[in-house]
Amino acid sequence: MAQITDQISLAVTTLNRGELVAMPTETVYGLAADAANEAAVAKVFTLKGRPATNPLIVHVADASWINDWACDISTDAEALMAAFWPGPLTLVLPAKAGVSRTVTAGQDTVALRMPAHPQALALLNGLGRALVAPSANKYMSISPTSSDHVARQFADDELLILEGGNCEVGLESTIVALLPGDEPRLLRPGMVTVASIEAVLGRPVAQQSGGVVAPGQHHRHYSPGLPCYRFGANTDMSHLYQAEDIGWIFCGGGQPVAGKLIDLGAEPEGYAQGLYDALYQLDHQTLSAIYIAEPPHGSDWQAVHNRLERAAKPL
Ligand code: TXA
Ligand code: MG
Q1: pLDDT tens, position by position, 14-26
Q2: Domain ranges of the chain
Q3: 103 CB less than 6 Å from ligand 1?
Q4: How many angstroms does the Cα of residue 238 sit away from the middle of ligand 2?
Q5: Looking at the domain that runs over 3-207, which CATH code has it been given?
Q6: Does the pTM exceed 0.90?
Q7: With a 6 A CB cut-off, is 24 part of the ligand 1 pocket?
């Protein structure tokens, strides 16, 4: 514990100086900056190579902190915070007047989340105010789920990385917009499923983007460097089973292949937790391509399919 405390206090000092810190969360590692320091927030965009038009999520240690950022907080928003915070759910709410336009990328809404990872919460409480934190990867590449992934992404940069083990959830948070005059709207699927959100709200969540956008969602990303393909259960891949230079990702019941095989299992939680690490592992081997067997469909698998659609081309 003493070591964790030392790490956190070093990280708090670093953030107070306006520098960035890679912070473990339960979803993916984040590239954190003091949300109240414009120059520090600007460094996040520069270091990631992220366009200034793509807004950042504000991370808080307590639901009361959102009053510094959001207004018109609906009873739906309160119900979702009570049900899922701390945890992998981000809420997009009306931004308070005066909130940094750098953080919101000029929009009049702000994204907020309370992470569940003990070190993220310790860091937030140590600093005493909110942190912006996009996933700690370079723009358009795979989100990191271990400190090692972060170190690979920022090998040429000086960056303090807090060691927080492997992320338990493994995919980025679910994003839901709760804005006046609109129904609750899913902007990015995550492991907090639409079904579980609808159960709390007692009404449907719209899934089509109707005016509100999560700007980052327009881009193809999460891509490994190697060519990456996905195939359905009915596609015969046996002509490639003997090739030694192919990486495979299966979802339980994999085939005997000559290449490198990673089986992420048939449960959505375990699959989600391992997916980015599997992509990092295969991407760093001398292979010619990655082939991914598509998992089943259904609400539990929605986030996994969303990421696979971005990472891999259909066969
Ligand atoms: O799990 C997560 O959410 C991770 C961890 C580190 O917390 N963070 C993360 O951040 O995935 P990032 O920046 O990689 O993705 C945030 C997404 C982007 O697609 C961004 O466009 C969207 O959230 N977003 C942020 N603010 C928004 C807003 N006001 N309205 C709509 N979308 C917003
Ligand atoms: Mg990201």
Answers
A1: 999 999 999 999 9
A2: 3-207, 228-314
A3: no
A4: 35
A5: 3.90.870.10
A6: yes
A7: no
